[in-house]
Amino acid sequence: MQQSKAAVSVEVKQVIASLCKMLSAVGLEEVPAPETFRRAKFGAGPEEDQFWKLLSNILQTAGIVSCEAQAQFGGEHCKLVAAGLWQTGYYADWMFIKEGGGGGGGEERRCSSRELLLALGWLIAEGTLEKLVSQRVKKLDRTLFTPMPVNSQFPTRPQIDSSSLRKLQWLVGSLRHQNRILLSMQEERTHLLHAVFLASLSYPESSFEQTSAVLKEDCVCMRGLCELLESYLNWKQVEKVFWTWMGSVLDCHLTDPVVVEKAPHTLRGSAKVCHHGNRGLEKMENMLQRLPTRQKGQGRYRAFAEDRGGAEALQAGSDTSSLPHLLPSLSTLHTFPQVYRARLQTIVLVKHSSRPTDGPCGGAETTDELPASQATQLLLQMEALLLQRRDTQRLANRMQMQEVVSRQEDLVLIPP
Amino acid sequence: MSVVTVQLGQCGNQVGHELFDVICSDALEDQRKGYSTASCERFFHQTAHGELVARAVLVDMEPKVINQTICRSAKSGRWRYGETSHFSQKQGCGNNWAHGFCVHGPRHRDVVEELVRREVERCDRLAGLMAMMSVAGGTGSGVGAYITRYLRDVYPKSFILNHLTWPYGTGEVIVQNYNSVLTLAHLYHHSDAILVHENDTVHRICSQLLNIKHISFTDVNRVIAHQLGSILQPALTTDSNGIYSRNPLGELVGSLACHPEYKLLSVSTIPQMPSSSIAYSTFSWPGLLKHLRQMLISNSKMEECIDWQVQLPSASERTRTLLGSSFNTSLANLLILRGKDVYSAETGSFEDPALYSSWLSPEEAFNVWKSPVIFNKYEKSATLVSNSKALLRPLDNMLGKAWNMFASRAYIHQYVKFGISEEDFLDSFTFLEQVISSYNQL
Amino acid sequence: MTQSVVVQVGQCGNQVGCRFWDLALREHAHVNKKGVYDEALSSFFRNVDLRRNDGGSCGVGGKIENLKARAVLVDMEEGVVNEILQGPLREVFDSTQFLTDVSGSGNNWAVGHMTYGSAYREQIVDKLRKTAEHCDCLQCFFLIHSMGGGTGSGLGTRVLSMLEEEFPEVCRIVTSIYPSAEDDVITSPYNSILAMKELTEHADCVLPIENQALVHIVNKIKHMSHCGKPGSVIKTDTTVMSGQGGLSRAEKPFDTMNNIVANLLLNITSSARFEGSLNMDLNEIAMNLVPFPRMHYLVPSLTPLYTLADVSVPPRRLDQMFSDAFSKDHQLIRADPKHSLYLACALMVRGNVQVSDLRRNIERLKPSLPFVSWNQEGWKTSLCSVPPVGHSHSLLALANNTCVKPTFIGLRERFTKLYRKKAHLHHYLHVDGMEQSYFTEAVSCLNSLIEEYDHLDATKGRLMPDAPRFSIAR
């Protein structure tokens, strides 16, 4: 047990290191050391500052916070981060502890580095990392072709008469051909990249110096690109572990809150905080309205918000951005009448034994909590169910389409 | 970006050889490096000694033609075929499509696939495959249809263009209409586009435009190769920003054959004249394009036979379907201009919506490629590749004759012997009737 | 390059075959001056180096050592075969290619087909296999036999079914010599009808040749040569007229007639042997000319049959050659194809003839030739650049035409006359394995064949509407 635990911690260390490498390859400055992350899990310490910086860096580089906003907030990380997280739809208590605190940003705003770590987890789960990578690739890879502008003007309600059907078929064919052209271009690029890479390996450093500066620059770019892609690949392979660890951070946070000062606000109450035209809020509110009434009655908004964090931890490898849309629809399924909160079993148990809490998220016995493994199971089942429903829907659509086509188009008569 | 050519049967091998010859001499003649480099990369690879070797695979079921073709290319001194990129057997398919498709095709597909794969691997990037064959005989059409299907499985993402030579109306092979029906129906499923040359039309070009007295098959094939070359040589597309189009097959298919029911392409080229007269002739772009446009709408493949009476239908006529009308509606056109002052050429007359079907606008249906390089000694030349009703009549004739024969069940036993049943025939007939009906609706 | 094997059965088959080998050697000697064993030679001959013990053949490209015919000779008497063995052609065969008996078949189909067929089955198959093994790519068997006698019709058709059994992939082209109405063999109608059933069922193509038609042609040639008109002296060194220049010197009574048949075989294979601008493989013959499996009787006609000694012939002669091929006088059976119905027609041209000549003549002749409604363009053509010896060009037309029907009807009449009286029937029924049902089946097979031709003939001259096409509903 001890051994395996040690192995796990070593692994976690490596994973976080690869994340750090990834983050710096993406072009972020002042990435905290892996050890900082690990310490942040337990809340205290001077790491906070580094995380504020990291978060604001990410938000800025990913373009979540615009330049104007940056100017508006000045050099103040905290506000910027809070606003940026709002944009992505993240919510946490610390963001609303004191509103309108313009100048100072002093002790009142202080929150634990663990919470910031959670926020970072949210950002990664939202796909910010991929956004950063693709931005960086675009910057580094000069051979990348700009995508062709495709004229996508469709009538809002397509009419199914034979000529628009034909036009549609033509357009679909055209897209398919374009796709193939692009694919072959990509193939060629890979070939070329490979060739360049091989060439750079076989040439001694000195010969590089003789070649032109442009080439050198290109070479640097290419190396950066290779590094970036390599680190992303590494990260993708070990990402799962990171999410497990993140889950443990979350649990740690829930069971052992560092800063629990006030009762949770309702969202409506805190909505004042946000800046005008917040998309995230809209999205959130939409979601809330679609929540089953039963849960609404229990007033578990906070729980829901946390649910999202937990579920994301579980969904680590898959497309996380679609999850918020998925959840409400999940809850409407008959087979799954209630939204459950997932927990990671092993670590939770350890935590529980050490320190039971009376917080709003209570013990593991509550009916709306599920062990993580079971939740995974349920989610997988759900996914399969949804996929199945999608397929049947597609099939039905196709049948209908074919029916229409055959009515529209032509029947074949067998000869006399 | 490169094209791998698969030459099948006697006709495919002969036409393919002429094509490489035209392309090679055109690429080497011009001094513009970019053009000849692009052209050579497209169709040839270079050996360590700098020899040009065609990116081609030669397939036939008898050895005579392949031996002859390889010999002739080696004699040219400018280019040659790969030493090992050919495959032949001892005995032909005896004009029997089923023998080619059901026996020879499956039996030799692995060898052919291996040859094709070797050529593909030699390419830095594969633009696509081009299979050349006739539809009349047994080897080109039967083995060709099978190999096309197989290559489609092996290269699902590559473009596959089929070049077909349609036989003379009479006298070559008695079962040519059956073979044609089976070939076309099978290719339609697997090919991206089918480019057709009719022997009768090309024969007339030889006799009337080129003034050839005793027309041999070589003359006919040379005309086909000239037209094909003017399509496939490097050219600039509208949005290529001065770089030669990278994927000729993809661009060709993408601009002409996006709809699964419409895949038949015909070609007309202007001007065509005896080589001795070229030096004494001058051309103007407006004149050439005016003629070419009338050739398109009156569906004549030759400058000499243009019917100037045919005009675009007025708006009121469009609403009625005029089957008897001699106006040739296009689905899509691709205009390729090569030669002097090419950028001054005004192609607006091809963008008239009345030229096209009601459901596709000229912006989607019309494309131009240009190249300032003089092609094959013509100071200016224009080629129009058209997906139009032009092939409707020959297709309908061919299908009618085959159907008449099928109604008496004549020759069917020859096909059944090798595994093509009456149902297979019926499937092919129905499918082609469907194609004809689609084109009729344009 | 592919190879063919000639199987000659019976007295008539061997005599014709003998002429064929003689002329084939002569033709190749004429074309192949270098003495190199080439692809063309390999199609009918093996090149054997006798110094090698294994008896294996040499590859193409070497010097000609000893040419051996790709042939199997079968006869149930020794006369003809012995003659060959003592004659000038003995070099071309070796003893393993022969199969003979002493007693003959007594003009009895049943004896040839049943008795000898069963007794010699193993030996015949063995010889066929051996010959086939010498081939690189065996494409075709040419069977030569007569319909009237016992061995040719009985054992010949038995060999045909052996070929089908043993070599199902290999094309079987049968040259059958049909007896005259005044044939001296009384039982020839029986033999012919029984053989017809076998031919209809087991052959890919049958080239029917009538003795009477051959006699007629030979008489006409003789008449031409004796009429003494200036400028119409017949050249004697052409392949049709004589074997002069060939290996055998002595002229025998049937030689001229047999020469015509041998020429037919030479011409039919010329396009496969020699080069030309439009080749025609042997397997293309059946593919193009046989629309229905049983209707594989192809009427041959040869032109020109003789060349006038006068060289200053008008250039019109080429077009005349095409016209002649469709005239009654040049058919190798007594029939008039122009007044019957064509199902399909092949023109195999040799010599210096261009595609344009071919197209012009087809266009010229087409209006006068009735073709079946669904095959109005039923022409298959080939051009071989090597002309036959002594001619500048020649034409072999193979017509799948309903004009064969009268020949079959004549046969049936003679058969019925005999069969009604049960004449000589006991000679057949004594033979082991022979039953009367063979007769009834054979005659009903012929009846249905004639009916099929009748059926097609009925469509002649009527304007046949196009078959209604599929309509695509919208």
UniProtKB/TrEMBL annotation, chain A:
Q: What is this protein called?
A: Tubulin epsilon and delta complex protein 1
Annotated signal sequence is: none
Question: InterPro entries, from UniProt?
Answer: TEDC1 (IPR043535), TEDC1_dom (IPR027996)
Span of domain Tubulin epsilon and delta complex protein? 108-251
From TrEMBL, chain B:
Instruction: Write out the GO MF terms.
Output: GTP binding; structural constituent of cytoskeleton
Q: Name one GO cellular component term.
A: microtubule
The protein's predominant localisation is other
Where does the UniProt annotation locate this protein? Answer: Cell projection, Cilium; Cytoplasm, Cytoskeleton, Microtubule organizing center, Centrosome, Centriole; Nucleus
Sequence ranges assigned to domain Tubulin/FtsZ GTPase in this UniProt record: 40-240
Coiled-coil parts of chain: none
Q: What are the UniProt keywords, alphabetically?
A: Cell projection, Cilium biogenesis/degradation, Cytoplasm, Cytoskeleton, GTP-binding, Microtubule, Nucleotide-binding, Nucleus
Q: Which family does it belong to?
A: Belongs to the tubulin family.
Q: What is this protein called?
A: Tubulin delta chain
Automatic annotation (TrEMBL), chain C:
One matching Pfam family is Tubulin_C
Q: Give the CC-aspect GO terms.
A: microtubule
GO molecular function (one): GTP binding
Subcellular localization is given as:
Cytoplasm, Cytoskeleton
Q: Where is the Tubulin/FtsZ 2-layer sandwich domain?
A: 278-413
Tubulin/FtsZ GTPase domain mapped to chain residues: 54-276
The record ties this protein, via CDD domains, to: epsilon_tubulin
Keyword annotations from UniProtKB, A to Z: Cytoplasm, Cytoskeleton, GTP-binding, Microtubule, Nucleotide-binding
PROSITE patterns according to UniProt: TUBULIN
Q: Tell me which InterPro entries the record gives.
A: Epsilon_tubulin, Tub_FtsZ_C, Tubulin, Tubulin/FtsZ_2-layer-sand-dom, Tubulin/FtsZ_GTPase_sf, Tubulin_C, Tubulin_CS, Tubulin_FtsZ_GTPase
The entry sums up its family as follows:
Belongs to the tubulin family.
Name of the featured protein: Tubulin epsilon chain isoform X1
Q: What is the lineage of its organism?
A: Eukaryota, Metazoa, Chordata, Craniata, Vertebrata
